[in-house]
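Reposting from the mailing list since nobody answered there.

I have sequence plus structure tokens for a pair of proteins and want to know whether others read the tokens the same way I do. The first protein:
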Amino acid sequence: MNGVIISIDGACRRPGTPECSAIGAYFVKDISTNIIYDSGAVVEYNSTGQRGEILGLINALKKCIDLFNTGRVDVVYIISDSEYVTNCIN
């Protein structure tokens, strides 16, 4: 079985103000070889920390879809410190 671990995190700068912005960071790593397939961060203005978490998840999952379509991945494990993300997935 070929698997990857995706790890995500999100944050918000100046929450509750007109200048607020969220960031979602992620990386996608092969379980057996430790090769990092992708990593990055996404910024969204006028947003929240929860949206930052989801943005990181969405971008990581997009990479997993590409890996699945090429036959390199068939299982995905998600690491997140966000109860919101966990509840969204479950």
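The second protein, same order (residues first, tokens after):
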Amino acid sequence: MVTVAIFGVVESSFKMWNQTDFKKLIAFATIQEMNLILLLLVSYQNILDYSLVLFILIHGWLSTLMFYLVDVIQKKTNSRNIVEISGLAYKFPEIRFIVWFIIIFFTGFPLTVKFVIEWAVLSTLILQHQVLFMSVFFVIVAFGAAGFTKQMLIILYGMA
């Protein structure tokens, strides 16, 4: 199960970087988080730890919000292609705040709930003497978050 979860996180992290379909971008972000949750369920000693339960709840709420945003944008623009819908901040300024909110929460920006959860998870796993393994794993998770943010900024402000 650990191998499946790690493979899922790595693959989805790399696929977010060059995604052209907005719905697939959100799907890969969801796959990354679900595999992270699977890894935590397998590796945790205390499955009912508050951070894991909170992570599952935040994931459900954030994924629902992101897929709803895709639907709203698709209805407004008649497209899910990231290149075609790029520059949304100029066409629909009201969407800009929602997209920034999603970026901040998904990436685990400091002082957000997801940041606190990731910190608790990392500290728990460090106590289990898996420092090198989890350090590399969280670098890959951060790589996926950076790819997700890059694509979301293209959606908001267009291509560089």
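Reply #1 (J.P.):
I read it the same way you do. The helical segments are 2-15, 22-43, 50-77, 82-85, 88-91, 93-107, 113-127, 131-157.
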